[in-house]
Amino acid sequence: MPAMLEVDVDNERIANTNIDYFPTNFVVNNGEIFYIDYECNDYMEEWNFENWGIKYWSKTPDFLKYVEEHS
């Protein structure tokens, strides 16, 4: 299971909170990934990792479009 999915399954539902999985909200330092965004919201299935975040953490058309537009 990918590390990001583990974060969602283990923490997001339990805490009844969604985080914003957009990649610019994360920083990697010394092999660890940190969430740095200011925003968390009440948990909703449509905004969880499996339904929204994964499109920015895998090579999906949405991700490729973002890279093309911002490179």
Give a description of the structure:
- This protein has two helices and four strands.
- It is of the alpha+beta class.
- The chain has one domain.
- It has a two-stranded antiparallel ribbon.
- The longest helix is centred in the first third of the chain and has 10 residues.
List the helices and strands and how they pair.
Blueprint: H1 3-12, E1 17-19, E2 26-29, E3 32-35, E4 40-42, H2 61-70
Antiparallel strand pairs: 1-4, 2-3
Structural descriptors:
71 residues; alpha+beta; two-stranded antiparallel ribbon; 2 helices; 28% helix
Distance between the termini: 29 Å
Biggest sheet record: 2 strands, antiparallel
Oligomeric grouping of the chains? single chain
Number of helical segments?
2
| Average residue-wise pLDDT | 81
Q: Using the CA coordinates, give the radius of gyration.
A: 12 Å
**Could you tell me the strand content as a percent range?**
15-25%
Low-confidence stretches: none
Number of strands: 4
User: What topology, given as strand order, has the largest sheet?
Assistant: 1-4
State the share of residues found in helices, binned by percent: 25-40%
Question: How many domains comprise the coordinates?
Answer: 1
* Backbone structural class: alpha+beta
- Globally, the shape reads globular
Order of helices and strands: HEEEEH
